Amino acid sequence: MSRIAQVIVLATYADEVMEPLTRPDESRSWRGHFQPLDLFVGGWVMSSTVWSRAPGC
Question: From the centroid of its chain, how far is CA 40?
């Protein structure tokens, strides 16, 4: 099982909701933060190679 993941969130008009997820936060069970996806308005992307406390890892 690969431990590399790329997550894309498409949520139009969700800037306020996504804003906390664009900052690193050590209290999360996963590492990384989302960045705006320039190709799509209302899209964010995150790449991660380390997931802590994730089932199956």
Answer: 16
Return d(Cα 53, Cα 6) in angstroms, integer.
17
Cβ atoms of 33 and 24 within 8 Å: the answer is yes
56, 44 Cβ separation under 8 angstroms: no
Q: What residue type is assigned to position 34 of the chain?
A: F
Say how far apart CA 44 and CA 35 lie, in whole Å: 5
Instruction: Look at residue 20 in the predicted model and tell me its pLDDT.
Output: 93
What predicted TM-score, i.e. pTM, was given to this entire model? Answer: 0.63
Q: Which of 27, 29, 35 is nearest to 7 (CA)?
A: 35
Six token digits for residue 18: 């996504």
Torsion sign across C-alpha atoms 49, 17, 22, 41: positive
